[in-house]
Design a protein that fits this description.
Blueprint lengths: L2 H31 L4 H21 L2 E2 L6 H14 L4 E10 L2 H31 L1 H4 L3 H20 L3 E9 L5 E10 H16 L3 H5 L1 H8 L8
């Protein structure tokens, strides 16, 4: 082999080894960023064990995934722990005659649950901080809540990221699905803000009290389980 060819081959090997080492280092850094404390790992394992027992008792199995239910649950609760305060869990429930219909209905259910929570939260803030303004304009405020809720449902649907779902076959031939979604806080905030801006076009109240209502819209929303 000529010396020049030998040197080129050797350099390529060195470069390839360097690239592989760099990739490994980046993967390790990423993994460490998601690393949980012992206390968090314990909490995750506790939730996984609790959920596995619950689903088994109720006859539910993993739905729409090749993963085991335990693996899906571990990944889900690990994400919640690792990104606590930065993501929100939203659940959707459905019952339909086919798997596809049940899956779609579960997503719609999750979007509706999030939107309803948003409107209820804002209504509570309005009643607490703007009681005098509401007293003689209840009908107009109700129109705003309804418009805002509908817009949030439209906006948040595109931000729902399914983490996992479980399902069971019912005696009447229908399928019941429980789907769990994770929503990034920043994406959820954008969805609420866009919904508020769009609802302003349909609500005089939203225009009149834009600043105050906007402050409420910016507050974090966490749907109940």
């Amino acid at each position: 082999m000529r010396l020049e060819n030998y040197c080129n081959t050797k350099n390529r090997r060195i470069m390839k080894k360097f690239v592989l080492m760099l990739m490994a280092a980046l993967m390790l850094t990423s993994a460490n960023a998601q690393e949980l404390t012992k206390q968090q790992v314990k909490a995750v394992n506790k939730e996984v064990k609790k959920k596995l027992k619950d689903y088994k008792q109720r006859g539910y199995e993993i739905f729409g995934s090749s993963r085991t239910l335990e693996t899906a649950l571990t990944k889900h609760f690990t994400a919640l722990e690792a990104k606590e305060g930065k993501i929100v869990e939203v659940t959707g429930f459905s019952q339909a005659k086919s798997r596809n219909l049940a899956a779609t209905a579960a997503q719609n259910s999750a979007a509706n649950r999030y939107a309803t929570t948003c409107s209820q939260q804002i209504k509570g803030r309005v009643l607490a901080d703007m009681a005098n303004d509401v007293s003689n304009q209840e009908a107009e405020f109700d129109k705003f809540y309804a418009a805002f809720e509908g817009k949030v449902q439209q906006e948040i649907k595109g931000e729902l990221r399914q983490s996992f779902a479980v399902a069971k076959q019912n005696a009447d031939g229908t399928i019941s699905v429980e789907a769990y979604y994770l929503v990034d806080d920043d994406a959820a905030s954008r969805a609420r803000i866009n919904a508020f801006k769009n609802s302003q076009q349909e609500s005089a109240i939203a225009q009149k009290y834009a600043q105050k209502l906007s402050d409420f819209v910016n507050e974090r929303v966490v749907p109940a389980e």
